[in-house]
Amino acid sequence: MMLTTDTGASESNPLREGLPRTRVPEPCAVVLFGATGDLTHRKLMPALYNLARDGHLPAECAIVGYARRDWNDETLRREFAQTLPAAIGPGFDEFWPSFAPLLAFSGGTFDDPAGYDALRTRLEALDAVRGTRGNRLFYLAVAPEYFATIIANLGRAGLIHPTDPPSPWSRVVIEKPFGHDLASARELNRELGHVLSECQVYRIDHYLGKETVQNILALRFGNAIFEPIWNRRHVASVQITVSEELGMAGNRGSYYDGSGALRDMVQNHLMQLLCLVAMEPPVDLSADAVRNERVKVLDALPRWSPRDVYANVVRGQYAAGSIQGTEVVGYHAEKGVRPDSATETYVAIRLMLDNWRWAGVPFFLRTGKRLPKRATEIAIQFRKPPTTMFEVDAGESAGANLLVLRIQPNEGASLAFQAKVPASRRRLQEVRMDFRYGTAFAVPPPEAYERLLLDVMLGDPTLFTRTDAVESAWRFCTTILEAWQRPEATPNAVYDAGTWGPAEADALAADASTHWRRL
Fold it and tell me: Quick check: 297 and 290 in contact, CB under 8 A?
């Protein structure tokens, strides 16, 4: 059972003064492994600051940074007093005096048992001082090779509580990637299982925390006009695009060269978006009900032979080009990239799900670096009317309706339909109805990490990935990876930076009598 507290403003609770009554988690300590790293500075600490400022953290809370640096509490507070203002913006100084006392530091390396013993001692002291009651959230903002080591040491040091009440709770958040193929994902899951129960593991994919992603379910199942036509009889095709302007920013080249677009984006982000678009209605919105339906989509992915992979998947690598008027180098010239690297920076996939609802409907997935702009969207192309009574503008989709869900930027949705051109007799032209979150609700959607961190503290795993989902997604992607390793595999196609990918990907969509949308 998930236990929460309804807390109102109180004189003994300075973090809550002047705030409306709201649902907040139980008292807890949040431990950030990798506290000095980029993710903590850019995303995690700003998210925790905003949650505290908005009254979503319990008053009895502590935020503990764990890293190998020779720091103390004051060092950590000075560090974030300098870096947080850029992320928070105006008004930072007003709440910082209330937030700073929540921060504490515990030093140690990831593989030294003594560091975990010191962390346990520190957390026990914070239980007494801050009233955190033994509840622990451990966030692993570290490289994936440290996941198993950290979790094994947490178990050895007695920092993971049993799941049976009345024990305090222990939850561990793991960033992607969850392995680099099916075998490594299974091995990681086995390592986690030696210490943690499935209900204690929160595999985070920040895309699922985006408000527009969550709104896919609301759009489908909260509106009677959409669900009856959300199937093979009315949908002609679905496109899911995650495009990025950036190349290998900073020191990312060495990491990315060992990963590539399929591992970095398709196995997690695009698979999760596919699940939400294609899943069956859950019996309710409980965590297991929603996650069960997502896994069924992954289990319906095609079981391809190498020949199927070559026919339905295009991989590419960017060459030098121009992004919005700025000349950029090709992938092989990026810092940290091997000069002869065969790592793909672009992937396009055409697939059909093996289930009743979507039989025969092509799903097109694509992602790439150095594309013309940063954008994520889902486009549902509906079928054309069965007969033509009007004159429509030229184009393969003329006369068909199109629903576009924009994940980023400019979060929202648009519906394209046909309207008669004024003063014409029967000529139609496409027009759009547009919805934007910022305009409709007068506030920007919350940051994904704020929502997801709060869900972990509340014990709600709905937006997190379960073991079976991880392995099902990797089963599909590993088939592609293995096909690429065969001697007869087609090498990377080349595309200029600033274009929408290689011509071979255009042909992939053209084979299905459609074309890629230009975002």
Answer: no
d(CA 382, CA 235): 4
d(CA 141, CA 35): 8
Query: Judging by DSSP bridges, how do beta strands 61-67 and 28-33 pair with one another?
Result: parallel
Give per-residue pLDDT as tens, 171-187.
999 998 899 999 999 99
CA distance 504 to 316: 9
Q: Distances in Å between the alpha carbon of 100 and those of 30, 220, 264, 467, 488?
A: 14, 42, 35, 36, 59
Annotated catalytic residue 180: no
Mean pLDDT, contiguous 10-residue spans, the chain (519 residues): 34 38 82 95 96 93 95 96 93 94 96 96 96 97 94 97 91 93 96 96 90 85 91 95 90 87 95 96 92 97 97 97 93 94 97 96 97 95 76 60 89 84 77 82 80 95 94 97 96 96 91 78
Alpha helices (runs of H) in 247-381, residue ranges in sequence order: 252-257, 261, 271-278, 287-299, 306-312
pLDDT for 390 equals 65
Q: Find where tokens 């970095």 sit.
A: 264
* CB crowding 83-96: b at 16 or more within 10 Å, else e: ebeebbeeebeebb
Query: Looking at the whole model, is its pTM more than 0.85?
Result: yes
CB contact at 8 A, 388 and 399: yes
Report CA torsion sign: 367, 515, 405, 371: positive
Looking at residue 427, the DSSP 8-state letter turns out to be B
Which pLDDT value is given to residue 13?
39
177: cis peptide before it, omega within 30°? yes
Cα–Cα distance measured from residue 172 to residue 426, given in angstroms and rounded to the nearest whole number: 61
CB neighbours (10 Å) of residue 482? 14
Per the CB < 8 A criterion, the answer to whether 240 and 364 are in contact is yes
The pLDDT score that the predictor gives to residue 20 is 38
Q: How many CB atoms lie within 10 A of CB 121?
A: 12
> For residue 107, how many other CB atoms are within 10 A of its CB?
19
Selected catalytic residue, list 161, 269, 332, 515: 269
Question: Computed from CA positions of residues 177, 180, 182, 187, in that sequence, does the dihedral angle turn out positive or negative?
Answer: negative
SS3 at position 120: helix
Q: With beta carbons less than 8 A apart as the criterion, state whether 248 and 334 touch.
A: yes
Q: What beta strand segments (E) does 248-385 contain?
A: 313-319, 321-323, 326-328, 346-351, 363-368, 375-382
> Cα(101)–Cα(342) distance, rounded to whole angstroms?
49
501, 321 contact by CB (below 8 A): no
With beta carbons less than 8 A apart as the criterion, state whether 403 and 380 touch.
yes
Q: What is the DSSP string of 404-422?
A: EEEEESS-EEEEEEEEEPT
